[in-house]
Design brief:
Elements: E1 2-3, H1 8-27, H2 36-45, H3 53-67, H4 71-74, E2 81-82, E3 86-89, H5 91-101, E4 113-116, E5 118-121, E6 128-133, E7 137-140, E8 143-145, E9 153-160, E10 163-166, E11 169-171, E12 175-180, E13 186-188, E14 191-193, E15 200-203, E16 209-211, E17 214-216, E18 223-226, E19 232-234, E20 237-239, E21 244-249, E22 256-258, E23 261-263, E24 267-271, E25 279-281, E26 284-286, E27 291-295, E28 302-304, E29 307-308, E30 317-318, E31 326-327, H6 341-347, H7 358-363, H8 367-370, H9 374-377, H10 399-414, E32 421-422
Parallel strand pairs: 2-5, 3-6, 4-7, 5-8, 6-9, 7-10, 8-11, 9-12, 10-13, 11-14, 12-15, 13-16, 14-17, 15-18, 16-19, 17-20, 18-21, 19-22, 20-23, 21-24, 22-25, 23-26, 24-27, 25-28, 26-29
Antiparallel strand pairs: 1-32, 30-31
Helix pairs in contact: 1-10
The structure holds calcium ion (2 copies).
One calcium ion (CA) binds near residues 335, 337, 349, 354 and 356.
């Protein structure tokens, strides 16, 4: 009777089989590396499957409500949908339009209508025109181009209040944002650029709040106020506008202009003859072509603690113009990093951020001396198909190599004589 006792190859074979199974399981479920070209081919072969960035954004958006983030924060992830120009006249028309369009909200203070994530080629007229409305509404992440008709605003509010225009853009129109006889509105974080007239124009409009808007390369003023009073403009930027950064005239009174940065315009701030009792403080006015500030009023406006690029130090700064206004506390270095606002603007650093400074730029060693260049640790990403499929997931042998290794082992074992013994 032969009894197999102690087949040394058996345990090794079992070990190899287990190893093979483990490797197969380790590979199971791994996503293969897919290049951009592969993705395009997949899209072509499977027209019902959208392998696009939009899909990824939509998936992120779906997660936002569960994460508790607010809708307003979530909309930045949305891609824009092409839409025709929108024209609303009156509260009833707003309600009907909101229903037809599927816009959220009911027009109340707690639940404003929301018009969001549109791209509008205006073809001359306003991208969004809202008139004779006092319901609450938000316009957010809307981009308008080409509102070129006479006195048209890409975003036009006429005799309207309680509106909030947020993070929206307008370009290549007549006005970027135009408020006419419209009070108690807010404009926040908008970009208006390359318009034929002013970036933002307030006409007989009061008690509005303009914060963090940017007006760039417009053919007239960055911000223009005509007969508009009691508005607050803070943290806005106007640069490279053909005329003024801020231009107030025609009895625009009691406005508060603070913490704005106005550079590379014709005038930084220009106060016309009939302007009274405005407060101007903490503004940075530099590199403007004609004057950083101009005051031709009766002298009732308050200039205090502004930064003037042409200030030479030593004495209070006298505002150019017939008013003879004086800033007793001119600021040279707004962020206290040791470099004047003027020098920072010339150097391209942020005059309001102490972490952004010519000193930091000049003394910080270049990244190559302290940090290995990316090419030494990470292969250049010239193509996603060049990425290792195991990137970031530890050691991962290709399946072909594992299979070849196991095959060699099994062949060598089959050639070994079996160990048997007789009882
Ligand atoms: Ca500084
Ligand atoms: Ca700085």
């Amino acid at each position: 009777m032969k009894v197999q006792a102690g087949r040394p190859g058996l345990n090794l074979r079992r070990l190899l089989v287990v190893t093979l199974l483990a490797c197969m399981l380790a590979n199971f479920g791994r996503s293969p590396t897919v290049s951009a070209e592969d993705t395009m081919q997949l899209s072509c072969m499977c027209p019902m499957t959208e392998v696009t960035e939009n899909l990824l954004l939509e998936e992120l958006w779906q997660d936002l409500p569960r994460s508790g983030l607010r809708y307003r924060e979530g909309t930045v992830l949305q891609t824009l949908t092409s839409h025709s120009p929108i024209n609303i006249d009156g509260n009833a028309n707003f309600s009907t339009t909101a229903t037809n369009e599927g816009w959220p909200g009911d027009g109340s203070n707690s639940s404003p209508y929301v018009i969001a994530n549109y791209s509008i080629e205006a073809g001359g007229v306003s991208g969004i025109r809202i008139a004779n409305v006092d319901v609450y509404f938000i316009i957010e992440n809307v981009h308008v181009n080409g509102s070129t008709n006479f006195q048209v605003g890409a975003f036009q509010l006429t005799r309207t209040q309680n509106g909030h225009i947020i993070n929206s853009n307008s370009s290549d129109g007549y006005y970027g944002i135009h408020l006419v006889e419209s009070n108690n509105n807010s404009l926040t974080g908008n970009l208006v650029t390359s318009n034929d007239r002013d970036g933002i124009h307030l006409h007989d409009s009061s008690n509005n709040n303009l914060t963090g808007n940017s007006a760039t390369s417009n053919d007239r003023d960055g911000f223009h106020m005509f007969g508009s009073s009691n508005n607050i403009l803070s943290g806005n930027t106007a640069t490279q506008n053909r005329e003024d950064g801020f231009h107030l005239h025609a009895s625009s009174n009691y406005n508060i202009l603070s913490g704005n940065t106005l550079t590379s315009n014709h005038y930084g701030i220009n106060l016309g003859s009939s302007i009274k009792n405005n407060s101007l403080s903490g503004n940075i006015l530099a590199l403007n072509f004609e004057n950083n500030a101009l005051d031709n009023t009766d002298g009732s406006n308050t200039w205090d603690s502004n930064s003037y690029g042409d200030f030479t130090g030593g004495t209070p700064y006298t505002i150019p113009g017939t008013a003879g206004a004086v800033d007793q506390n001119p600021i040279e270095d707004s962020d206290g990093d040791g470099y004047s606002d003027y020098d920072e603007l010339v150097a391209g650093t942020d005059p309001r951020d102490p972490a952004s400074s010519p000193r930091i730029t000049s003394t910080t060693p270049p990244p190559s001396s302290t940090t290995p260049p990316p090419s030494s640790t990470t292969p250049p990403h010239t193509s996603s198909s060049e990425l290792p499929s195991s990137e970031g997931e530890g050691v991962f042998l290709p399946f072909q190599q594992i299979f070849a290794l196991l095959t060699l082992c099994l062949i060598s074992l089959r050639r070994r004589p079996k160990n048997t013994k007789k009882l």
